[in-house]
Amino acid sequence: MKRLTAYITVIVCIVMSACKPATTTSETTSTTSSATGKEFKIDSAHSILKWYAFKAVGSHEGIVPVLEGNVFVDGNTITGGKVILDMKNLQVTDLEGDDKLSLESHLKGLEADEEDDFFNTNKFPTATFQILGSTPITGDAEATHMVKGELTMRGITKPVNMRVRLDTGAGNAVKITAPPFTIDRTEWGIKYESKKFFENLKDDFIYDEIKIELTIGAIQ
């Protein structure tokens, strides 16, 4: 029997800028060999993914640490890279005590009957965003580039595009920030209490979209 229904994280979108993954599964493509320019190693201490989630009543938010990775920058263009997310250390930041621990456990799938509800971090301890390249954009106060990439989560890979701002600093460091964007969790097999797949959920349904903010700091 599923526990802590009242505190289930849900996945949401207050659409500010959309990132819409395609519906077909593909294999992750390594771009390290084809990327050009300088390689910057991701600094985990200055990198973080924030998530925001909602259901019919209530909301939750939290973070996923960035474990490691790299970014290639050629002049003023992001040409490739990889961002590895530490799903086993996913955190809920709007709860405390037992409620926080229970929700984190459910999201991570630590109980035998909850493994596949959300992220099943024992089986899939990391998620990976592979950067395939970028194109400059103009007239956008929040972003300088559109990054094309692939997100692999729970063993499923989907194309994902996101707007980002690239700051090159003094030359030996870069900062990449992605304004809020969204992904549909069901594209990665997370169907728990989704209205697409379950009827008669009433007010217990979970929105399919996750709102995400990503900050990457990297140094040579």
Account of the 3D structure:
With 220 residues, the protein is mostly beta strands. 5% of the residues lie in helices and 43% in strands. It has one helix and ten strands. Strands 1, 2, 3, 4, 5, 6, 7, 8, 9 and 10 form a ten-stranded antiparallel β-sheet that branches. The termini are far apart.
Radius of gyration: 18 Å
Question: Helix coverage percent of residues?
Answer: under 10%
How many runs of DSSP E, i.e. beta strands? 10
Major beta sheet, specifics?
A: 10 strands, antiparallel
Unreliable stretches (pLDDT < 50, length at least 5) are 1-32
Helix/strand structural class: mainly beta
Please report which band the strand proportion falls in: under 5%, 5-15%, 15-25%, 25-35%, 35-45% or over 45%.
35-45%
Amino- and carboxy-terminal Cα gap? 49 Å
How does the overall form come out from the CA principal axes? elongated
Compact overview of the structure:
This protein has 220 residues and is mostly beta strands. Helix content is 5%, strand content 43%.
List the helices and strands and how they pair.
Elements (H helix, E strand, L loop, with lengths): L37 E5 L5 E7 L4 E16 L2 E10 L4 E2 L4 H12 L17 E11 L8 E9 L2 E12 L5 E12 L24 E11 L1
Antiparallel strand pairs: 1-3, 1-10, 2-3, 2-10, 3-4, 3-5, 4-6, 6-7, 7-8, 8-9, 9-10
Describe this protein with a few key phrases.
ten-stranded antiparallel beta sheet, disordered N terminus, 43% strand, mainly beta
